[in-house]
Amino acid sequence: MYRILDAQFIAPGIKRFVIDVPRIAKKHQAGQFVILRLHERGERIPITIESSDREKGTIRIVVQAVGKTTYELNALEKGQAILDVVGPLGKPSEIEKYGTVAVLGGGVGTALAYPTTAALKKAGNRILTILGGRSRELVLLEKEMREVSDALYVTTDDGSYGEKGLVTDKLRELIGKGEPIQLVLAVGPVPMMKAVADLTREHGIKTIVSLNPIMIDGTGMCGGCRVLVGGKSQFACVDGPEFDAHQVDFGVLMRRNRMYRDEEKESLERFQHACEGNGQSGTCRSGVAETAPVVIAGGKP
Amino acid sequence: MSPAKEVSANPVPMKERMKIPRQGMPEQAAELRVMNFTEVNLGYSMELARQEALRCLECAKPTCETYCPVGVKVKDFVKLIVAGDYLGAAAKIREDNVLPAITGRVCPQEDHCEGFCLLHKKVDSLGIGYLERFVADYEQKAGAPPAANAGPTGKKVAIVGSGPAGLSAAGDLIQRGHQVHVFEALHEIGGVLVYGIPEFRLPKQVIREQIDTMRKMGVEFETNVVVGKTVSIDELLEEEGYDALFIATGAGLPVFLNIRGEHLNGVYSANEFLTRINLMHAYDFPRYDEPMVSLRGKHVAVIGGGNTALDAIRSARRLGAERAYVLYRRSETEMPARAEEVKHAKQEGIDFQVLTNPVEFLDDGRGWLRAARCQRMELGEPDASGRRRPIPIAGSEFEVPLSLAIIATGTSANPLVQSTTPGLKTNKRGYIEADGESQRTSRKGVFAGGDIVTGSATVILAMGAGRRAAKAIQEYLNTGAW
Fold first, then answer.
1. Which of B476, B481, B482 is nearest to B244 (CA)?
2. Helix or strand or coil: residue B397?
3. ipTM > 0.95 (yes/no)
4. Distance between terminal CA atoms of chain B?
5. How confident is the model at residue B174, as a pLDDT?
6. Phi then psi for B324, rounded to 5 degrees?
7. Given CA atoms B462, B466, B467, B471 in this order, what sign does their dihedral have?
């Protein structure tokens, strides 16, 4: 059992947890993730680590409720525990001095981009950050990201905050202005990462994305997380999760992520129904996003 | 004084023993068991066990023992069954095999002990596996306490991986008085025994009982530690104070066929398919959260002919698959699966399409599998594996309509430990180099064995490696010599 030392909603349906896992905290590097299992009948889900504190032996994760397990997780409070937490898994981000780096974070993808951005900044890069969300409250970690960025832009789909539009609109504008961008890091929903890859391919700018396929063991045993990269099977858990965006077949990724859509819907509906039957409607749909759930980075739907 | 003549409690004269037929294993009827995940084999009764044990010829030089990878004293334990001393028989097996209830169920006996039984030259071999299982289950039911360990040596050994190799080494080392700590990457102990082998062949309860026995013997287990990621080999040796370490991380990444359509929805690796079902209980969705696509009424095929392939397709059958095929590119003679599993699979209506090789998976237009395009093969000259090489027959292509295809054609080396352990030598395929006898690696104090050294093999071969490692670790801890 791994104790939850703190749990706070930071946006509707999005909760930040601090978990006591000294072994993982000690080894965590930017770009890596953990796999959680809530209870004996739970599934294993990958969640990206937002930050870690070696001294305290803790990690922070940010979770968006999109499916049964993430709803159930977000109903947990400080003082409760998670049955299994394993990691840190995946290859760490490659941190080098590239020059000017554009970081694009969509929704909770920003939590995943944060540690890598901080490491890139520390390595002497000039960081241009573009944060996107459907609306103001889904623009996450603005304060944290501002601290590690040389410039920060915000776009929202509905124009409720920052500029109305998509993160790719802003990136196109920056490229057009002649910003000398050597690397783009894009983390967010798959359609966003695909759009970024399409844009930067035209301009020949190296682009890294962090992928979120279906995953079970996370150690390179089951092969469930295979993605098509450069025409070859790669395993996101051991070869990734970061890949060259221009080599990734996003169509296959989106299709495979939808493989259990019906079962996932059934599972969530049963959970919420049973939960409400227990008179706990406050937690069953706590902070449900107003619109339909989207496939997000750092947790399977 | 002349040596005491061996006394046999067996009242049946030698000549009569061959006339006793091999006692069949009581099993669940095929038409019932395809609808459940409970164990196929029900186990011998005391009467059946005695009757079978009476068949043993008590050879002066028992070849069954010579060919057992862990050296179980078969003749002795069978004699104890004849004498009615079942706990004595179990203790006799335990001298060489810490997991008898498991090997009694999953060991390919026909390739080892039973394949070399003298009876086998004339009649059916002795049911050594069935007898082993009988005494192991008897011991479990009797709740017999484990044998005492040697006095504490003060030495600490880390075992990386809780599959058959790791458990076997852990069992031997704890008996020798060392402190033994087993690290497991997954949330459950047992490695391939829990994620790979289905309930109907090896019930989880049997594994749990064997693990509990090891816990009682003093073995410590720690789950959720991916050695190479959560902690490195060097940290275990230098910071956590282990005196020796055994790497038994098992099989690695599944190998795919690299044919068109392999990324379609509905194409699985056997490891993923079986992990969902066995480790994550997806057959019990939605009671358990891990989902599995519905197979009811569907056509499913497995590609491959090993135990993993049969485990996968028989699981698919139990999940409601209407047609269930084994597509295997060689003939049934070359099939590496246990004979009993092939027999059981056929009883369960699995359709064996041998000399058949898929060349492409076809899309239903919505990104899901519709069919496999296959070609027929014929056998040519033996290849590097000693088996006759399959050669495609020109113009033999045909389609097998399928909703699900499971690829069970093997695994490659998992790189996690090797890539994070400086100085640990690997071969060109990425497996760890270890001495065939002592299981020593290129790093002092570090031993390795099982699938991470040999590539995919069997439970008993991994256990054999674990035993050899335990013996060599004992020597190393005593002498310090490398």
1. B476
2. coil
3. no
4. 43
5. 96
6. -135, 120
7. positive
What residues pair up with B373 in beta bridges, in sequence order? B360, B399
Query: φ and ψ at A127, to 5 degrees?
Result: -110, 125
CB-CB neighbors (< 8 A) of B250 in chain A: 221
Give the CA angle between residues B141, B146, B149 to the nearest 5°.
175
**Which among B250, B280, B416 is the nearest to A216, CB-wise?**
B280
Q: Which residues of chain A have pLDDT under 50?
A: 287-301
Categorize the per-residue pLDDT at B220 as very low, low, confident or very high, splitting at 50, 70 and 90: very high
DSSP-derived secondary structure letter, B265: B
Interhelix angle B339-347/B307-318, rounded to 10 degrees, is 20
Mutation site, A38, A52, A222, interface B, largest B CB count within 10 A: A222
User: What pLDDT was estimated at residue A284?
Assistant: 66
Q: pLDDT digits over A165-206, tens only?
A: 999 999 999 999 999 999 999 999 999 999 999 999 999 999
Distance CA A297, CA B475 (A): 50
Give the pLDDT of residue A299. 37
Reference A68, options A86, A41, A87; nearest CA is A41
Q: Which residue has the tokens 């989106």?
A: A254
What is the value of pTM for the model shown? 0.91
Please list the residues that pair with A82 across neighbouring strands.
Answer: A2
Instruction: Give the pLDDT score at A287.
Output: 47
Chain A CB within 8 Å of residue B413 CB = no
Distance CA B99, CA B86 (A): 16
pLDDT of res. A285 = 63
Alpha-carbon gap, residue B16 to B6, rounded angstroms: 19
Interval B298-327: pLDDT, tens: 999 999 999 999 999 999 999 999 999 999
The pLDDT, as a whole number, for residue A259 is 86
**Widest distance between CA atoms in chain B:** 85
The answer for residues whose C-beta is within 8 angstroms of residue B258's C-beta and 6 or more apart is A233
- Rounded to an integer, what distance in angstroms lies between the CA atom of residue A72 and that of residue B279? 21
Q: Pick the closest to residue A168 from A140, A145, A189, A141 (CA basis).
A: A189
Mean pLDDT of all residues belonging to chain B: 94
CB neighbour list of residue A105: distance below 8 Å, 6 or more residues apart: A112, A113, A114, A129, A130, A131, A132, A140, A141, A145, A167, A187, A188
Q: What would the two tokens of residue B123 be?
A: 């009649």
Question: Strand locations in B139-216, DSSP E?
Answer: 156-160, 179-183
Q: Given an 8 Å threshold on Cβ–Cβ distance, is A226 in contact with B225?
A: no
Q: Encoding tokens for residue B364?
A: 């239903």
Is the per-residue pLDDT at B140 higher than 70? Answer: yes
3-state secondary structure of A260: coil
Q: How far apart are CA A299 and CA B316, in angstroms?
A: 28
| Chain B contact for A229 (CB, 8 A cutoff) | no
- Chain A, window 129-188: residues with a beta carbon less than 8 angstroms from a chain B beta carbon: none
Upper half-sphere CA count for residue B178 (Cβ side, 13 Å): 26
Mean local confidence (pLDDT), B333-360: 95
Name, in order, each residue with C-beta under 8 angstroms of B310's C-beta and a sequence gap of 6 or more. B302, B326, B337, B341, B342, B345, B350
Here the tokens at position B240 are 């956590």
Place of tokens 């190998």: B255
Q: To the nearest whole percent, how much of chain B has pLDDT over 70?
A: 99
pLDDT at position B9: 84
**Mean of all residue pLDDT scores within chain A:** 90
Buried b vs exposed e over B135-161: b needs ≥16 C-beta within 10 Å? bbbbbbeeeeebeebeeebebbbbbbb
Q: Residues 253-292, chain A: which have Cβ within 8 Å of B?
A: 255-256, 258-260, 263-264, 266-267, 270
pLDDT over 90 (residue B252) = no
Task: State how far the Cα of B306 lies from the Cα of B301, in Å rounded to an integer.
Answer: 14
